Amino acid sequence: MIKLSFTLNKNRLELMVSEMKPLSQILYEDLQIDTQERNCNGKVCGNCLVLFDKEPTLGCLIPAFKLQNKTVTTFDSFMQTAHYRNIRRIYTQLNIEPCPNCYAAKTLIFESILLKSKTKASQTSTLDDFSKNFVNKGKNIFDKPEILAETIEREFLISPCPCMNSQELFEIAIKAQEDRIKRRVL
Ligand code: FES
Fold it and tell me: Is any atom of ligand 1 closer than 6 Å to the C-beta of 176?
C-alpha cells in the first residue's frame, strides 16, 4: 500500500491504495466515479482515457504509484468547462462529432492538442519582435499557433475507434482553435 497524493479535477486528494492498482479502478472503487469504462481486457478501447498532466492517457494503464503529485482530469469534470463548450460548439457547427463509444476519449484528446498548441504559442510570445521573426521563419504562429496534420494522426492513435477520419479530426481541431482565439477562451 502507498499513501497517494494527487490532484483530481482540481481537488487535492490523499488516499491509501495498492501501488499497482490502475487509475481506472481507483476512480471507480475508491472515488465512486463510475462514468468511465474500467476494463476492456487489453483491447485498448481507449474509453478509460483521462488527461494525465494534460496528456491523454489510458486510465487502466496508469498504476497508482505513477499518480504521485500528478494532475488528472476526467471527462465528466471537463464537461463543466468553457473549453468543453468550445469543442462542443465546433461539433455542432460542422455537424460532425465522435460516436458515443469514443466521444469522451476523442474530446479529451482535442483538449490536450489545443492546450499544447496554446503552451507553444505562449512560450514564444515573450520574445521580442526580432526573435519572433527569427524563430518563426516568417510564419505567424503567435496569433494562430500551428496544429499539424501529423500531430492529429499521432495523438488520436490512442483512440482507435474509426468513426471519424483524419480530415474531420483535423478540421475540428483547427476550427476549435480559431474559436478559442476569437472568443478569448483561454
Ligand atoms: S478500458 Fe479499454 S483501454 Fe482502458
Answer: no
